[in-house]
Amino acid sequence: MNDGSGLEQLLAPGALHPLFQPIFDIRRLARTCEARAVAEGVELESDLRLVAELGVDLAQGYFLATPLAAAELVARGLLGPWVGATPSPQP
């Protein structure tokens, strides 16, 4: 069972696993570009806590919501109605 009990050890000063360095680099790049970093694949509460501890701006995954069709996202007001629309021909 993954209950996040090792989270505190992973994030202890000087103990950060090298695997997380790219996450910090991406987050720093996003902030430099005035953009946001998104963590994908958040499937457990411990994943979400880790994402928050690492300072990632946004998260998505099954823990937060199951996949929805674009029409459902539009119906819920989460996505603009232009999604899936046929592009206008260019002159």
How are the SSEs placed, and which strands pair?
Elements: H1 7-10, H2 21-32, E1 38-39, H3 45-53, E2 58-59, H4 70-75
Parallel strand pairs: 1-2
Describe this structure in words.
The protein has a domain at 7-65. Strands 1-2 form a two-stranded parallel ribbon. Strand 1 (38-39), helix 3 and strand 2 (58-59) form a beta-alpha-beta unit. 34% of the residues lie in helices and 4% in strands. The protein has 91 residues and is mainly alpha-helical. It starts with 6 loop residues before the first helix and ends in a 16-residue tail after the last helix. It has four helices and two strands; from the N terminus they run ααβαβα.
Key words describing this protein structure:
91 residues, mainly alpha, two-stranded parallel sheet, disordered N terminus
User: How can the largest sheet be summarized?
Assistant: 2 strands, parallel
Compressed to H and E, one letter per element, the order equals: HHEHEH
Lateral strand order in the biggest sheet: 1-2
Mean pLDDT: 76
Residue fraction in strands: under 5%
Count of runs of 4 or more consecutive helical residues: 4
Q: Total strand count, please?
A: 2
Structural class, by secondary structure, is mainly alpha
Rounded radius of gyration (Å): 18 Å
Give the N-terminus to C-terminus distance in angstroms.
58 Å
Instruction: State the assembly state of the protein chains.
Output: single chain
Low-confidence stretches: 1-5
Apparent shape: flat
Question: What's the helical proportion of residues?
Answer: 25-40%
